[in-house]
Amino acid sequence: MKVAILGHGNIGRAAEAAVKAAPDMELAGIYHHDDCLSCIAGNIDVMLVCTPTREVQKFATVLAARGICTVDSFDIHGQIWSLRTALDAVCQANQSVSIISAGWDPGSDSMVRALLMAMAPNGLTYTNFGPGRSMGHTVAAKAIPGVKNALSMTIPLGTGIHRRMVYIELEEGADFKTVEAAILADDYFAHDETHVIAVESVEALNNVAHGVNLVRNGVSGETHNQRFEFNMTINNPALTGQVMVSCARAAMRMKERGEFGAKTMIELRPIDLLPGTKEILIKALV
Amino acid sequence: MKVAILGHGNIGRAAEAAVKAAPDMELAGIYHHDDCLSCIAGNIDVMLVCTPTREVQKFATVLAARGICTVDSFDIHGQIWSLRTALDAVCQANQSVSIISAGWDPGSDSMVRALLMAMAPNGLTYTNFGPGRSMGHTVAAKAIPGVKNALSMTIPLGTGIHRRMVYIELEEGADFKTVEAAILADDYFAHDETHVIAVESVEALNNVAHGVNLVRNGVSGETHNQRFEFNMTINNPALTGQVMVSCARAAMRMKERGEFGAKTMIELRPIDLLPGTKEILIKALV
Question: pTM above the 0.95 mark?
Fold first, then answer.
């Protein structure tokens, strides 16, 4: 399988390492946002779209229209269905497969949530994120006047409630109390317990560690108190890149079977994510 | 969907409750091992085969040959591939779908193991069972001369190592030390730390609680120390019955799409396990 990468930031570099480690893949090129897409070689099976999330649809649409399978980690939960709908039409018309929102949340966490719902259809699932950096909240904090650099950490408090720890470097002459008030009033932070802390260097806090604690207490049949928990502590871009690469394998297999279209991870068969024959995988994993 | 049940023990009764709780299913009959299979009504979409595991192949083969989809929770790990191979041919020839080994291990745990391997391809996974009753070990202990009744509990010690706690009621006149030595020498127990305890009443210990602690520490791309953990504490037959019922839904959908054959759970799409439209499920879970 010839797998290429579009975008070479944190996730693109992690995806590169995962492609190189895969026994059944060959790295077919690394492209940048501003390369002309028509220059992309024609012999690519799957393109990993590692651009900023808001640029995913534009690139994936062009590639899918050329019959090239794509995988992205589009992570705006409220817009996933509309991305899927738009890309699905392009894929169906051009016999390609696009796997969307293939990271860890959305992504592998979504598969766990679906499985737990199948195991206990009634009940509550809570997804508790972190401790780890929130990209969205970090960007929101950086946009506040007087903030030179910022890092917003997500701290899980249980039952899906999160604390925001916002570390900021102030611009010269900025007033901490004024900046703090502006952050606390921002819609990104106004609804959560938020603490703002001034630091000398945000760069010194840089760490791509993240995690999740996903819990469900539900009912199987008529039996209550069925308890499930999924935990992980991970390097965030490394996991995202690896999930994308495993999904590239699934995209290729689906294309070979003529199963064209855009899919989320809960629409994939776990076995398609893995290298090796069905016999070897079933004997090892089932 | 018309779903029927063959076998009405612990798992059959739990499956009955799960069918009745499913919004998209109708209970189409409960059959017993010794009913003549040719008397089974022709309008069944899926039969849940809740017989003892060694009788699964016989019944599933007859049903699949009549074009009726089946789901079983066949749990002899070393024989799953051969069951799949045999049933697959019958299903392909008769346009039916059989989902095999659809419990929690093998079953939902298998899906988690596959997903974790896709997230961190190199590394070790340990599946730690219990505390809970082991059916196989309980049967082995009951077969020892001098044992009137027995219960073998599986206690997880980590890294896939388990302790066996064997509670026995002695036959009148039986010598505890002799019975204990026979249990410890039995191949089921000789390889694990095993404790034999005489009790007045094994029935008084009856409890269908079980659990699992499934851990993986692996490598995503070139990044080590990616840590994952899946825990559950559950009513064992209730979960097994529920998983079978969710898989009945997947079998029906696969049959409607013309995807005939015998499949294990790692070959299923999680979304197919759940009632509702793709749009509702993707918006809720991804």
Answer: yes
